[in-house]
UniProtKB/TrEMBL annotation, chain A:
It comes from Lupinus luteus. Its EC number is 2.7.7.-. Its cofactor is Mg(2+); Mn(2+). It holds the Pfam family DNA_primase_S. This is DNA primase. Belongs to the eukaryotic-type primase small subunit family.
UniProtKB/TrEMBL annotation, chain B:
CDD domains: PriL_PriS_Eukaryotic. It comes from the Eukaryota. DNA primase is the polymerase that synthesizes small RNA primers for the Okazaki fragments made during discontinuous DNA replication. One of its GO terms (cellular component) is alpha DNA polymerase:primase complex. InterPro entries: DNA_primase_C, DNA_primase_lsu_euk, DNA_primase_lsu_euk/arc. Its cofactor is [4Fe-4S] cluster. This is DNA primase large subunit. The lineage of its organism: Eukaryota, Viridiplantae, Streptophyta, Embryophyta, Tracheophyta. Binds 1 [4Fe-4S] cluster. Residues 272-440 form the DNA primase large subunit C-terminal domain.
């Protein structure tokens, strides 16, 4: 849990968020039917293979005004879901797992003792918070983000998204801005939803390169003769270029003594560090270089390490280790490891910033700008300007939420529902065939 | 599983089945009749093996050391005077322990992980031919990759092998292509090449695939056994097997420290003193960080909070303790709103009302603290410098410190902690440290003895004066 010692900058804007606005937002703009269709995974259709209880076994939970937390809400159909949201007007909606039985009736099953109330399906989820990067960003800290540090999120999306698709073969992946300081990822393929906790942990660990905690300065440890293909790919396709062309200069990683000392610490050879330190302390006095000082020093560091002059064990790995330390995605591991972790639903409004949790297109994630994501008050203003009409398909089309919902549908929901339909048909046909075979015996 | 009535002799056995693999997969209960005394004694022998493996693992033994340990344990405990009975003993003891360990989630988890480890080490001990027979027994639906396919990904496979420190010349040429879900352990360690959801498992990694299958089959079987136990066996065997089964499970698991024992409650006013004298480094560190920052992240709160519960801090004191610190940082209101619930929750007063047990060393060592986290095992998660500084603050002298560091370098984190304990208390700790709460109670016991003997001394001197 992160403590908000100070208020985020955005909150100083007046009236970004208030319960009355929220009521209107849920009434006029929130894409209830899209959320419903997603959560049904095709089980709302007419096909005889559909599981009509699927949605009702899903846990939703609400954070209401005054931090009242209501867990284990469940809904039978689209109308129930929509009217409950409109009625309760939650500050936050969280989505939990699909349980073996309707979670609102869990007590009825508790008596039988045999652990019947248990999570059976859940999207594979990831949560990345910029506040976990505080030791490697100098522009902001805590919940603040700016355009200098946000790209850390962008490359996290690129690295994780690529691996989820290429390595694990997942297809239905939704990335969402968490409303303030990070991103959420929902992997929704059928086989992702059915993963056990152990399998979830193994995926989270596959992504993990950080060892140790605050008390161990070396954050990344890369072993072996070469990097695993996944890490090698992330390094050469994303991290290296980002570090050298963006992060070095945008965060001034080597400009001052305090900052370059932090990087020198990661070089496992005392004399090599001493040589660089000497050079850089002098360099500061003369400041002849026309090029960016961070880039110049980084080149010097790489040259020295690769020159063969110093022979400390593992010296050759430290360039990669430094780049990984500063750029590699930092996942909140616990979120991904367990089925029963809750995660905020897309299109919620962040109560501190008033910003909507809109989807992010992973193919164009570098174009995403968290500082221009529509806010609640902005949306309502747009709505007012256009005048209220009785549009059937929601009024979001007239607001800047339109493109976000459009993206959600075209990029994620439509392909997902097509796949679900196929899956339901295939498994139904297989079942039919199986029972036919049984009869013919 | 069926339990057969006790008879003085056995009328069928398995030893005529020659083609059986050397390690049984325990697919079905043996069609044997078991004498009551064998029922118990075989189980105890196997338990010695399992307990030995569990201890070895929690002491952080290396894979090679574990392999020797398992071999020795098996030899010492699982022999039988009749060679023909060895396999039967193996099978019977396994099925008896299934009964013993099927009855709670906690017991199942332990049994499952140790039996799977046992299977793994035994499999690795087998020769290539025996391994092949066992593999066939599993009836894997996967085929070795064809030459064409192998060539197409060879470069990546070599890269993975080299990333694991193998020489490219020794890279296996036989790979099985399996869904990544089947080999979580290889995925977690990035020990396989993954492509489109398929993991390329080298022949020498197949044991991991088999161990996973073994485990999942056993896991399902344990659930079934549990159902049978609760629905019929328990009642039917109320006077005969049930008491044996119940005694077997509790006698070997050791205390879980969920209820404070022996020294009763500690109170808030003594806590600073007790921290210095009797807290293991992991808890002392969390405590000091909390006093310093007036805050701990979730992992730290759980690790320290449950430990404090285990040493006897009652709920009211615990709330007062956390409130006093956190309110300095986040304010009283935020504490009551966001943190007090968790404190009550860990005492089983909220939510699903589970009375959580304090973390064992194994759990703490295996935790994965991230940036900003303070929890974990200092011997494992601290840098060398930080650990040295921490040890010297605890009053460990430089010679003992070197011994501790030596253990740390060899990844014997619990032994490192044991040495620290011995250095501070000036006494041997033969049992080793397996649980932070055990560290605490052993330490308190020593101080209690010291107090007792000095009291006696005072009394004696007084008596002389009289």
């Amino acid at each position: 849990m992160i403590i908000d010692g100070y208020q985020a900058r955005e909150t100083t804007l007046p009236n970004e968020f208030n319960p009355n606005y929220l009521k209107l937002y849920y009434g006029k703009l929130f894409p209830h039917s899209d959320l419903f269709k997603w959560m049904c995974y095709g089980n709302d259709g007419k096909h005889p293979g559909c599981d009509p209880s699927y949605l009702s076994r899903r846990e939703f939970s609400y954070t209401l005004d005054n931090d009242i937390y209501v867990r284990f809400q469940s809904f039978q159909n689209a109308a129930e879901l929509e009217s409950s949201i409109k009625d309760k007007c939650p500050f936050k909606i969280d989505i939990g797992p699909v349980y073996s039985v309707d979670p609102s009736k869990r007590h009825a099953y508790a008596q039988s003792g045999d652990n019947v109330f248990t999570p059976v399906e859940r999207e594979l989820i990831f949560d990345i918070d910029i506040s976990d990067y505080d030791d490697v960003r100098y522009c902001c800290s805590g919940a603040d983000v700016c355009l200098n540090c946000w790209p850390l999120m962008t490359i996290a999306i690129r690295v994780i998204d690529t691996a989820l698709r290429d390595d694990f073969g997942f297809k239905h992946i939704l990335w969402v801005f968490s409303g303030r300081r990070g991103v959420h990822c929902w992997v929704c393929d059928g086989k992702a939803r059915k993963l056990t906790n152990e399998q979830r942990s193994s995926i989270a660990d596959y992504f993990r390169v950080y060892k140790g905690n605050e008390n161990s300065y070396k954050k990344v440890s890369l072993t072996g003769h070469v990097l695993h293909p996944f890490l090698a790919g992330a390094y050469s396709d994303v991290l290296k270029e980002f570090f050298e062309t963006k992060l070095l200069t945008s965060q001034n990683l080597l400009s001052s003594e305090e900052r370059f000392e932090k990087i020198l610490e990661m070089i496992p050879d005392q004399s090599a560090t001493a040589e660089l330190r000497g050079k850089w302390q002098e360099n500061r006095r003369s400041s002849i270089a026309k090029d960016d000082i961070n880039v110049v020093r980084w080149e010097q560091l790489k040259q020295l390490v690769h020159s063969g002059k110093y022979k400390a064990q593992r010296l050759h790995r430290c360039v990669e280790e430094i780049v990984f330390s500063f750029t590699y995605p930092r996942l909140d591991m616990e979120v991904s490891k367990h089925m029963n972790h809750l995660l905020k639903a897309p299109f919620c409004v962040h109560p501190k910033t008033g910003r909507v949790c809109v989807p992010i297109d992973p193919n164009h994630c570098e174009e995403f700008d968290p500082t221009i994501v529509p806010t609640l008050s902005q949306l309502l203003e747009e709505l007012n300007r256009e005048g209220f009409t009785a549009d059937v398909d929601g009024e979001w089309n007239k607001t800047s939420l339109g493109s976000a919902i459009g993206l959600f549908r075209s990029l994620f929901l439509q392909p997902l529902l097509e796949a679900c339909k196929k899956e339901i048909e295939t498994s139904y046909n297989a079942k039919l065939k199986h029972s036919k075979d049984l009869h013919s015996w | 599983m069926q339990v057969f009535p006790s008879h003085t002799h056995r009328n069928s056995s398995l030893n005529d089945a020659v083609s059986l693999p050397t390690i049984p997969l325990y697919r079905s209960a043996p069609p044997l009749e078991v004498r009551l005394e064998e029922f118990e004694s075989f189980a105890i022998d196997r338990l010695r093996v399992l307990k030995g493996i569990s201890d070895g693992l929690s002491r952080g033994k290396k894979p090679e050391e574990m392999a020797t340990l398992v071999k020795d344990l098996w030899k010492a405990n699982m022999r039988h005077q009749h060679a023909s009975e060895v396999l039967n003993k193996d099978i019977i003891s396994h099925f008896v322990l299934r009964l013993v360990y099927c009855r709670t989630e906690e017991l199942r988890k332990w049994f499952l992980s140790i039996e799977s480890a046992l299977f793994r080490y035994r499999f690795c001990e087998q020769g290539a031919e025996a391994q092949r027979v066992i593999m066939e027994e599993f009836d894997l639906p996967y085929k070795a990759t064809s030459n064409v396919e192998y060539e197409s990904v060879k470069e990546k496979l070599v890269q993975v092998a080299r990333s694991l420190g193998q020489n490219s010349s020794t890279v296996d040429a036989i790979y099985y292509k399996v869904p990544f879900e089947e080999v979580p352990e290889l995925v977690a360690g990035r020990k396989v090449f993954l492509n489109q959801g398929w993991a390329y498992v080298a022949m020498n990694q197949v044991v991991s695939l088999l161990a996973t299958l073994f485990r999942s089959q056993l896991s399902k079987a344990l659930i079934l056994t549990n159902r049978k136990w609760t629905s019929s066996i328990k009642e039917k065997e109320k006077h005969r097997l049930a008491p044996i089964v119940e005694a077997l499970s509790s006698s070997y698991l050791g205390p879980d420290y969920s209820q404070p024992r022996e020294y009763g409650e500690i109170s808030l006013k003594d806590i600073d003193q007790v921290v210095k004298s009797s807290f293991p480094l992991c808890m002392r560190h969390l405590f000091e960080k909390l006093r310093e920052d007036h805050h701990l992240k979730h992992g730290g709160r759980m690790q320290l909070g449950l430990f404090l519960k285990g040493v006897g801090l009652n709920l009211d004191d615990a709330l007062a303790f956390w409130r006093a610190e956190f309110s300095k940082k986040v304010g009283l209101e935020k504490f009551e709103k966001e943190y007090a619930y968790n404190v009550r929750h860990s005492y089983g007063k909220e939510g699903k009302r589970t009375d959580y047990t304090p973390f064992s060393c194994q759990k703490i060592i295996l935790s994965t603290p991230g940036a900003g986290d303070q929890h974990g095992c200092p011997y494992r998660h601290f840098s060398e410098e930080n650990l040295r500084a921490a040890l010297s603050r605890m009053g460990v002298n430089s010679r003992a410190t070197e011994d501790v560091m030596n253990k740390v370098r060899n990844k014997h984190y619990q032994l490192a902690c044991t040495l620290t304990f011995e250095a501070i208390h000036g006494m041997q700790c033969d049992a080793g440290i397996n649980h932070p709460n055990q560290y605490f109670s052993d330490s308190q016991k020593i101080f209690q003895q010291k107090v007792d003997s000095s009291l006696k001394f005072v009394f004696k001197t007084n008596a002389c004066e009289l």
